[in-house]
Amino acid sequence: MVELTGHSLTVEQLKKILLDREQISISSESMARVRESRLAVERIVAEKKTVYGINTGFGKFSDVIINESDVHDLQLNLIRSHACGIGDPFPEIVSRAMMVLRLNALLKGFSGVRPVLVETLAELINKRVHPVVPQQGSLGASGDLAPLSHLALVLIGEGKVHDEHGQPVDSAAVLAQKGIQPIVLQAKEGLALINGTQTMTAMGVVNYIEAEQLAYDSEWIAALTMEGLEAIIDAFHLAIHEARGYPQQVAVAQRVSEWVKGSGLITRQGEKRVQDAYSIRCIPQVHGASWQALDYVKEKLEIEANAATDNPLIFDEGELVISGGNFHGQPIALAMDFMKIAVAELANISERRIERLVNPQLNDLPPFLSPQPGLQSGAMIMQYAAASLVSENKTLAHPASVDSIPSSANQEDHVSMGTIAARHAGMIIQNVRRVLAIECICAMQAVEFKGIDKMSPKLRAKWEHLRNVVPSITKDRIFSEDIEKMNEELCGGYIIVKKET
């Protein structure tokens, strides 16, 4: 069980909650902070102080004072009116991440919600009641208003949740079945639920989990290609990489060297050629740079996972209530745009290695790895498919964070588009995995021609396992099916985020 404290949640803990079905608990200290924060809100209401979001309207309506008798309706109206999500829903794992991240933010004790609200949210998480949240509709400031409103609907017994088959069903029936009592929103609670960056951060965390695995997979797949092309190992000597100084570059060189250790196919400089092409020789530099970006992304995600991102925030037992802008998603927007470029590069260089595997002008293998060149096309169009995905990624990698469209009658005049950046990063990741799947299929075929008995022990074990997934190319067949089988294998049999159609 993972204990949430509001300040110590890590990506590794989120992996356990999201992938390993770990349950969560709430620390006693954080619950005490929640109680203190709620008492502060109740004093504000009792003393009839004017505080944004408690007894005022929202956005451009912030100057509209709300009667005390209408404070409850204010919160309910907020959730219903802001539930404007559009399009296909996020994968269920992203909805679960949203709930965990929103709960962790509330446990910081700056939001003024009642203990019953956080307890109900924890109960929904532990009983795996996950909201159906449409993917489109967030500007990424004033938080992820639309998607988080769909999350909040479930707490009040409205909206949709995923059933055991992943289909949308009315939340009221599922809550009744699970014995969960819907809550009635009180002052500040609706705003506290939806003012935040938990959608872009949730998508970002899931992206990172996938991208991290992809980055590791790209290394052994590249090593397999190196064997198929009888690549030169000298370029991976640690002296070269330590001379530059990037620890991620050094680490990639070390890991790739371990994959090819003991190989009879790997060569030394001067044996077959003096230098390899950049897509082989510069694997540590290019992949290492992507790892640098992923390290940056992970750092920002873990900060945001433990951040207070709603508005206003309550300090000093209610003596200090400040309206600010922590809901602005710019830090995650930039991180997701950085991730897009970094992950797309893994496919860019992979596609160039695919070309070297299939192009007879660049190797001494059969043209397009065909068993009967001419009669059989072999892997020719697999390279086309990889090139298409790489090209699509270049469009998706355009930074979303450079765009901003004013909203709320120009009160919210700069927004992050962070959720769009996170969604596009997810789409790029799906494309990259399929490019790597194609490289893997081609590299497996290449080492067959060169001699599997000469492979390194570690890569030979990989090859033997993967031949149960995708058989040798003995004649042309529907290679799309092979690509998807390999893609699913690289997913570990579990596709976290399905490619959008």
TrEMBL record:
Record-linked Gene3D superfamilies: Fumarase/aspartase (Central domain), Fumarase/aspartase (N-terminal domain)
UniProt keyword Lyase present: yes
Subcellular location: Cytoplasm
Top EC class for this record: lyase
Single GO MF descriptor: histidine ammonia-lyase activity
Pathway: Amino-acid degradation; L-histidine degradation into L-glutamate; N-formimidoyl-L-glutamate from L-histidine: step 1/3
InterPro entries hit by this protein: Aromatic_Lyase (IPR001106), Fumarase/histidase_N (IPR024083), HutH (IPR005921), L-Aspartase-like (IPR008948), Phe/His_NH3-lyase_AS (IPR022313)
Domain of life from the UniProt record: Bacteria
SUPFAM superfamilies for this protein: L-aspartase-like
Sites of the 5-imidazolinone (Ala-Gly) crosslink: A141-G143
Keywords, alphabetical: Cytoplasm, Histidine metabolism, Lyase
Catalytic activity entry: L-histidine = trans-urocanate + NH4(+)
Cellular component terms per the entry's GO annotation: cytoplasm
Short name of any one Pfam family annotated for the protein: Lyase_aromatic
Post-translational modification: Contains an active site 4-methylidene-imidazol-5-one (MIO), which is formed autocatalytically by cyclization and dehydration of residues Ala-Ser-Gly.
Keyword Cytoplasm recorded: yes
2,3-didehydroalanine (Ser) modification, residue list: S142
Similarity comment: family membership: Belongs to the PAL/histidase family.
Protein name: Histidine ammonia-lyase
Organism: Bacillus aerolatus
Higher taxonomy: Bacteria, Bacillati, Bacillota, Bacilli, Bacillales
